Amino acid sequence: MAKTITKERQEQLANRLVLNFGILLGVALIMLYVNNALRSYGVYQATTYTISLILGIVGIVGAVVFFVLGKKKCPKLKNYSAVFLGLFVICALIYLAKLAIIPGYDHIMAVITVYVAMVVYFIVLAIVTGIMMKRPLEKTAKEEKKHAKKKKRK
């Protein structure tokens, strides 16, 4: 027997997809400003890398704190650890360009990598959500009674 899903759960999944799209759209707009700041050399670029380092540290600490608190006290907090983890990944990809460890990986490639990672994340999330939403709907007690009455009439 296939697993069923309630209408409420289906609505939650759809809302999660819309919320993630909104967050990614906001991050994409912020990345436009980051891209401009990284392309301008001097104080703006140095400040952008410093802010990126600080936000990366805040991101990893926030991800760990929210995940641990979510496991121990409030399970809903665990969901927000992914936002902080995403912040850490974005900042790490940007700051990696400053370190120049990888040949050819500069600030322009860092911004492109962030955009590609965001697109891949959203596509995977959309596919997984679509698969979860394809499950048959669970019938409520009221619908079950109505269906039983129809069977008796036949």
Q: Secondary-structure blueprint of this entry?
A:
Layout: H1 7-39, H2 43-72, H3 75-99, H4 107-133, H5 141-153
Helix pairs in contact: 1-2, 1-4, 2-3, 3-4
Number of helices: 5
Q: Level of helix content?
A: over 70%
- Please give the number of β-strands: 0
- Measure the end-to-end span: 25 Å
What fraction of residues sit in β-strands?
under 5%
Please describe what this structure looks like.
The relative contact order is 0.14. The chain is built from five helices and no strands. The longest helix is centred in the N-terminal third of the chain and has 33 residues, at 7-39. It is elongated, with a radius of gyration of 22 Å. Helix 1 runs antiparallel to helix 2 (43-72), helix 1 packs antiparallel against helix 4 (107-133) and helix 2 packs antiparallel against helix 3. With 154 residues, it is mostly helical. Helices cover 83% and strands 0% of the residues.
Question: Outline of this structure?
Answer:
The chain is mainly alpha-helical. The protein contains 5 helices and no strands. The model has no long low-confidence stretch (mean pLDDT 89).
List the keywords.
154 residues, mainly alpha, 5 helices, 0% strand, elongated
